[in-house]
Write a structure and sequence with these properties.
Radius of gyration: 17 Å
Largest sheet: 2 strands, antiparallel
Strand content: under 5%
Structural class: mainly alpha
Helix content: 55-70%
Order of helices and strands: HHHHHEEHHHH
Number of helices: 9
Distance between the termini: 60 Å
Shape: globular
Number of domains: 1
Number of strands: 2
């Protein structure tokens, strides 16, 4: 009988490492980009983001060779949904003043939209969105909208401040129908 704690495919190994239960590297990748985006106002380093993206995709080459880019993108979208879902439910993320004051729903949605836009801007500005990485801002947004349906308007408003991000995800954020 096979050990179910051992990832069987190159894609599972890329995401979960050699042994399951040791963490989700794809969620960690999104977290690293989110932290870089949060620090963007402090002079977020595009070179470090480019290095992070390139290293991530170098580490997933075997998975892409075995399963294809679409399978990798599906896993990245799933990991983004997990990341954003945890943001919505984590009391530390959804509060201020060291967890003493909870953000109301509108503030939380605004924080999430801004975090998305800042991270996506750094991704685009990094110059590393080539090949399988080209759709990272869109995959990150897909995961966000799967985790938080109805957030399109807030994201669209924040993304409109960054023309390069708006261009990268325009097909995923259609304008709302006119009334």
């Amino acid at each position: 009988m096979a050990d179910v704690t051992e990832p069987r495919t190159a894609l599972e190994r890329a995401r979960f490492g050699r042994r399951l239960g040791t963490g989700d590297r794809f969620v960690g990748f999104w977290l690293e980009l989110a932290v870089a985006g949060r620090n963007a106002s402090l002079g977020g380093d595009r070179r470090n983001v480019a290095r992070t993206i390139r290293a991530f995709f170098k580490g997933t080459r075997a998975a892409v060779d075995e399963a294809g880019v679409d399978a990798l993108h599906a896993e990245l979208r799933d990991a983004a949904q997990l990341y954003w879902g945890s943001c919505l439910t984590d009391p530390q993320y959804s509060s201020t003043l060291f967890g003493l004051k909870r953000l109301d729903d509108a503030e939380l949605r605004g924080k999430i939209a801004l975090e998305y836009a800042q991270a996506a801007r750094l991704m685009v500005d990094s110059g590393a969105l080539l090949g399988p990485a080209a759709d990272l801002p869109g995959l990150y947004l897909d995961g966000l909208l799967l985790a938080a349906p109805g957030l399109q308007d807030q994201v669209r408003a924040v993304v409109s401040r960054y023309a390069e991000v708006e261009a990268a995800v325009a097909d995923r954020l259609p304008e709302p129908p006119a009334d």
